[in-house]
């Protein structure tokens, strides 16, 4: 590897192309090893040919192998030889280029060469370093050759040397001669046909496609680099010079390369003009410019000079020239004759400067100096000598906004920004609601604004809502798409020169305050609203005022108001700062948050008087109106946030623009969840899977504070459950009980500034006034759902209009010149939760009647689910009410319809099926629904059977079911989970549950899921456990192979196993798996009585293994191997087995087994024997003729056998 690095010198490539070349050689080595193994292993013994006699097998394989090679490798080039040639030739090109270019790079890399030291270089060397293009040409040539070779090898591989696919099956003809038959008729007469299989074909196809893919990717990358280099060379011609090409393209690790390129572009594309317009009296003026100071740029100087004076010197301050274009016009007295322009090196290297020196002859003593930057108004332009303004000369460039230069303003701004950075780093609003007291080592997540802030959907004007009758569509109304064309791209778009008075509307918790804080923090970090050339608006000072903190203030002046800013450095504005604010209001931003919390918002003066002075003291409501109307600080930007409930108070204010924050879209909710969990990606996936799997939770999280509450609650539950070895989800009711309290406390005036502890959120006991409010909300919520109205009239929420749980909608026309107020709950599920609280307070009789009358009404589905969770906390609730809360059928059953292994001598048991066949519209069970279901079943005695088939509970719901299995009060013995998208991970948790001491499960149905060999191994280990009481295990229609069958076979052999029925139909088990299972049932410890291996890949060989097992004293009573390739040979083996007196088989299913009359005859003869104990034999869908059927029936009838033949 070291030798390779030496040949491929890193300095002749840039770091990316050098890494790519090394990876190329690494891939070459890997592919070489793989193809050598494939080619050497592909011998005639990898061919499987049919139709050959046992003695001629080797001969047939050898001849067919030779024919295969001749047909699909015409030129006899082994694949590993092609791979070596492909990779090595291209690698040699890279090495040759590196050797050729190294000497040039070495010369260019010398300090004297790179730095351009004239004392160390001869003139020829300097010329070569500056103008030579050998390095550029060599680099482009090696790229071109590599591209051509890559395309050439791709064509050779696909069009000439090898087929696109090496076939798996191959028809082989051969006879005593060596020629292939000309046609099929000749083949049939003179040749023998053998159908062969090449076992290595699939592997060979895969790796040849991999070689093709690698070639394609490398050619594409090389093309991109070539186009990039040529485009840059066309744009900047000097890029091709050796020194520039080395420093810019090859030396990418050098941080100066970007700046070098920038200077190079300036050198190529821009020229600095100094215009020296001379009067006739003097012809010559001296212009002295050092070439190395001006980076080889052409400078033209023209001056208008009068002969009266001798010398004028023009020099620009460096600080005025940094990174921008400047035009300066000087009107100087015509006193001097010679003008010397000597720009400083740093001025020439950083910018282009146009200086026009116009010396007027009319006045000798009148000097007009330029205004300082801090005295030039933002809208003024400097006059030009010819009467044109600055835009005529700099038409394509914007003038940079002025920077305040007052002595005390800059420290004020800097200190304000530092305070903002510190105060907004760890916000109180982002602290976990579950913080533990000091000393407790509880794991909680406190977030920072930078870590968690996620963009919101913000649209112009107000949003409208159209609630349909379909509940699913109702939930989709809340999260808006983040791809709406009208929405803002960033918070910076809220303000511009045309919209300086802005109103932002949003319901509680939607993120209004956090938006203001984020905007302010970004300004403090110079991310937005900065004085740059492309800024639409910029601010020198920013103030953040919260209305609720101003309620206690009396009359005050504007100056005093600004000192009330959340992040003001002091309680007094310095005179110089205040003067600058008054003189430059366009550079001031004032954020006023929470107008709805202003105590006098309903008493706004319609026409306040004009202010007499800026120091006049007035009530806050008048100051606010003066600011919005521009009577104070005209030109300042004023941004106000409010809830919709207070809009009527500011209807007369002239806002330039109104926006509404709609919250998160689905994509933004996902982004928020992963930001919340940070580096814990597993927790992020768990939380997002849990939220996204339930439309109720997902829709609720469109409100950012609900996303925060949901993530905090679930994260806390996840931390607790992890210690117990279990994960999400938790009961939906528990989540909402916490979420409602956190939301209410955080957004209600009475509580929002209080220090709330963990007990406030997790305790079921509420303050008396809060309980009364919740009862009122419950009545309103219940009546709304009962009447089918999600939009609530204003009169029904009287005295609750300001509740954080309501959202004020646009008023509805109610007649001529009449409007009616409209409200809705912040979310449908919030309304459903409060409705369930109202139901929970009903009497037992009222509740039972309500449940009976409305259990099948879909609009009450989630309400009843919440109710089930709330009822769990109540004592002495009859089990009948609890089971009535299930949107399913719970009834008593006593038949094998639900269990093939129904316990004998047991009384009627309650069987819960959710949903039932005739009530599919009641529920589609999801993971969170399982939580409520499990909590109900735990409290209902005697429920032993649970059918959750055909649902979508997935892993999360499975974990809830596992909790039920481990519950001490649970009596569940039969569980059906067919078609629930369960995987090996779900199988792992189920296996752990059935080994729990409390688990009484005897039958487990897992048909049609996604369980593989790993999951099967978990079940096998569980069956070996002496705590496991499982008798019946159905794993049909999964992804189990011979490996999984082997795991189960080993478990059956164990003396702890109580398994009596095993269903492995519709899997991928072959003769090998059948052999493992046969050995298991032949073991004395096996208690297996029923084995189902239908629809697998078992042939006569597998049937023979099974026949040998049942031939012995095996306890197997039922064997189902239908829909396999048993054939007559396998039937004969099975006939011999059932003919033995040791065989205890009662039922044998051989339907669809490719059996003919011969196989039927063998079986009929066996049944006729008096030793046979078989009672039912299924032979449907075979190739048995009517004569064969009659013959078999005749044999059985003559022997008076008790066995029933089913054709």
TrEMBL record:
InterPro entries per UniProt: Connexin_N_sf (IPR038359), Leu-rich_rpt (IPR001611), LRR_dom_sf (IPR032675), NACHT_NTPase (IPR007111), NLR (IPR051261), P-loop_NTPase (IPR027417)
Gene3D superfamilies, sorted: Gap junction channel protein cysteine-rich domain, P-loop containing nucleotide triphosphate hydrolases, Ribonuclease Inhibitor
Keyword Isomerase: no
Skewed-composition ranges (Basic and acidic residues): 360-380
Start and end residues of each stretch annotated as Disordered: 359-411
Superkingdom classification of source: Eukaryota
Domain NACHT: 500-646
Transmembrane segments: 20-38, 80-100, 136-156, 206-231
Keywords attached to this entry: ATP-binding, Leucine-rich repeat, Membrane, Nucleotide-binding, Repeat, Transmembrane, Transmembrane helix
Alphabetized GO MF terms: ATP binding
Annotated coiled-coil segments of the chain: none
Claim: Lipoprotein is one of the keywords in the record: no
PANTHER family: NACHT, LRR AND CARD DOMAINS-CONTAINING
Protein name: NACHT, LRR and PYD domains-containing protein 3
The organism of origin for this protein: Stylophora pistillata
């Amino acid at each position: 590897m070291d030798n390779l690095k030496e040949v491929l010198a890193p300095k002749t490539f840039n770091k990316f192309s050098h890494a790519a070349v090394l990876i190329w050689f690494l891939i070459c080595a890997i592919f070489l090893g793989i193809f050598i193994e494939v080619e050497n292993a592909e011998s005639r013994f990898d061919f499987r040919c049919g139709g050959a006699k046992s003695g001629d097998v080797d001969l047939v394989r050898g001849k067919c192998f030779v024919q295969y090679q001749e047909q699909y490798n015409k030129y006899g080039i082994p694949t590993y030889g092609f791979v070596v040639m492909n990779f090595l030739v291209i690698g040699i090109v890279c090495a040759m280029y590196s050797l050729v270019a190294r000497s040039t790079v070495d010369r260019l890399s010398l300090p004297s060469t790179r730095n351009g030291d004239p004392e160390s270089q001869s003139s020829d060397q300097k010329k070569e370093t500056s103008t030579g293009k050998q390095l550029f040409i060599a680099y482009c040539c090696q790229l071109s050759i590599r591209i051509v070779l890559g395309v050439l090898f791709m064509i050779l591989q696909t069009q000439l040397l090898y087929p696109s696919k090496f076939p798996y099956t191959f028809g082989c003809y051969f006879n005593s001669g060596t020629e292939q038959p000309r046609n099929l008729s000749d083949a049939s007469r003179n040749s023998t046909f053998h159908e062969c299989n090449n076992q290595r074909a699939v592997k060979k196809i895969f790796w040849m496609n991999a070689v093709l893919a690698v070639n394609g990717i490398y050619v594409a990358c090389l093309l991109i680099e070539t186009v990039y280099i040529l485009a840059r060379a066309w744009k900047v011609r000097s890029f091709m010079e050796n020194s520039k090409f080395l420093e810019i393209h090859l030396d990418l690790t050098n941080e100066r390369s970007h700046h070098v390129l920038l200077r190079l572009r300036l050198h190529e594309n821009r020229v600095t003009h100094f215009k020296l317009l001379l009067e006739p009296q003097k012809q010559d003026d001296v212009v002295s410019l050092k070439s190395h100071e001006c980076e080889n740029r052409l400078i033209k100087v023209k001056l208008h000079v009068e002969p009266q004076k001798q010398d004028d010197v023009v020099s620009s301050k460096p600080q005025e020239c940094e990174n921008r274009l400047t035009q300066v016009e000087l009107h100087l007295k015509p006193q001097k004759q010679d003008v010397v322009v000597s720009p400083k090196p740093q001025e020439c290297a950083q910018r282009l400067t146009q200086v026009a020196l116009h010396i007027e002859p009319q006045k000798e003593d009148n000097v007009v100096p330029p205004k300082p930057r801090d005295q030039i108004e933002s809208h003024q332009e400097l006059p030009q000598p010819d009467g044109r303004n600055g835009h005529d000369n700099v038409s394509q460039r914007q003038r940079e906004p002025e920077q305040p230069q007052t002595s005390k303003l800059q420290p004020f701004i800097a200190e304000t920004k530092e305070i903002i950075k510190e105060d907004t780093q760890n916000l109180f609003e982002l602290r976990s609601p579950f913080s533990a007291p000091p000393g407790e080592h509880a794991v909680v997540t406190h977030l920072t604004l930078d870590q968690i802030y996620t963009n919101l959907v913000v649209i112009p004007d107000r949003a409208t809502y159209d609630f349909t009758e379909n509940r699913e569509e109702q939930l989709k109304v809340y999260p808006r798409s983040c791809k709406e064309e009208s929405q803002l791209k960033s918070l910076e778009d809220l303000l511009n020169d045309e919209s300086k008075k802005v109103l932002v509307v949003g319901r509680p918790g939607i993120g209004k305050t956090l938006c203001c804080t984020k905007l302010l923090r970004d300004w403090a970090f110079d991310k937005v609203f900065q004085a740059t050339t492309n800024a639409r608006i910029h601010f020198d000072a920013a103030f953040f005022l919260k209305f609720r903190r101003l309620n206690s203030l009396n009359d005050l002046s504007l100056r005093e108001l600004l000192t009330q800013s959340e992040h003001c450095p002091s309680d007094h504005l310095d005179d110089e700062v205040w003067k600058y604010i008054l003189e430059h209001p366009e550079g001031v931003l004032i954020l006023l948050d929470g107008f709805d919390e202003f105590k006098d918002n309903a008493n706004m003066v319609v026409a306040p008087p004009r202010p007499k002075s800026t120091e006049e003291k007035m009530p806050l409501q008048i100051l606010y109106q003066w600011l919005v109307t521009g009577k104070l600080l005209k030109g300042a930007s004023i941004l106000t946030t409010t809830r919709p409930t207070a809009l009527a108070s500011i209807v007369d204010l002239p806002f330039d623009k109104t926006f509404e924050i709609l919250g998160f879209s689905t994509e933004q909710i996902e982004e928020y969840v992963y930001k919340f969990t940070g580096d814990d990606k597993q927790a992020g996936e768990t939380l997002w899977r849990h939220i996204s799997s339930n439309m109720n939770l997902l829709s609720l999280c469109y409100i950012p504070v609900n996303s925060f509450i949901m993530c905090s609650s679930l994260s806390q539950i996840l931390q607790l459950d992890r210690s117990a070895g279990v994960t999400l989800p938790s009961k939906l009711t528990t989540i909402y009980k916490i979420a409602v309290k956190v939301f209410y406390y955080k957004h209600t005036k009475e509580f929002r500034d209080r220090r709330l502890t963990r007990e406030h959120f997790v305790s079921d006991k509420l303050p008396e006034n809060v309980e009364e409010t919740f009862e009122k909300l419950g009545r309103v919520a219940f009546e709304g759902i009962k009447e089918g109205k999600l939009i609530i009239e204003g009169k029904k929420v009287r005295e609750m209009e300001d509740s954080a749980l309501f959202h004020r909608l646009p008023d509805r026309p109610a007649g001529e010149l009449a409007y009616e107020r409209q409200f809705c709950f912040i979310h449908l599920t919030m309304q459903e939760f409060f409705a369930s609280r109202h139901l929970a307070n009903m009497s037992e009789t009222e509740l039972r009647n309500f449940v009976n009358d409305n259990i099948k009404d879909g609009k009450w589905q989630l309400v009843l689910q919440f109710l089930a969770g709330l009822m769990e906390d109540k004592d002495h609730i009859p089990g009948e009410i609890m089971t009535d809360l299930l949107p399913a059928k719970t009834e008593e059953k006593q038949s094998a319809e639900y269990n093939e292994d129904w316990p004998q001598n047991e009384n009627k048991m309650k069987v819960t099926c959710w949903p039932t066949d005739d009530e599919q519209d009641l529920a589609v069970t999801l993971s969170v629904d399982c939580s409520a279901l499990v909590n109900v079943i735990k409290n209902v005695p005697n429920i032993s059977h649970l059918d959750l088939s055909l649902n979508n509970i997935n892993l999360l719901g499975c974990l809830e079911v596992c909790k039920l299995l481990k519950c001490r009060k649970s009596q569940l013995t039969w569980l059906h989970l067919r078609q629930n998208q369960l995987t090996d991970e779900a199988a792992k948790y189920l296996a752990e549950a059935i080994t729990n001491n409390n688990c009484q499960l005897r039958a487990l149905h897992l048909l049609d899921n996604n369980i593989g060999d790993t999951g099967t191994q978990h079940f096998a280990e569980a069956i070996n456990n002496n705590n496991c009481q499982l008798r019946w295990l159905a794993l049909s229609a999964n992804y189990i192979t011979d490996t999984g069958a082997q795991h189960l076979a080993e478990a059956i052999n164990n003396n702890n196993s109580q398994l009596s029925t095993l269903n492995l139909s519709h899997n991928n088990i072959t003769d090998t798996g059948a052999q493992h299972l046969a050995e298991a049932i032949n073991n004395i410890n096996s208690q297996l009585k029923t084995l189902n291996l239908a629809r697998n890949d078992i042939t006569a060989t597998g049937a023979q293994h099974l026949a040998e097992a049942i031939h012995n004293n095996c306890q197997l009573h039922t064997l189902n191997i239908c829909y396999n390739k048993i054939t007559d040979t396998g039937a004969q083996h099975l006939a011999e087995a059932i003919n033995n007196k040791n065989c205890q088989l009662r039922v044998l299913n051989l339907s669809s087994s490719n059996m003919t009359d011969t196989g039927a005859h063998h079986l009929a003869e066996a049944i006729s024997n008096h030793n046979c104990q078989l009672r039912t034999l299924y032979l449907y869908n075979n190739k048995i003729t009517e004569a064969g059927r009659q013959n078999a029936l005749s044999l059985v009838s003559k022997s008076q056998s008790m066995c029933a033949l089913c054709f």
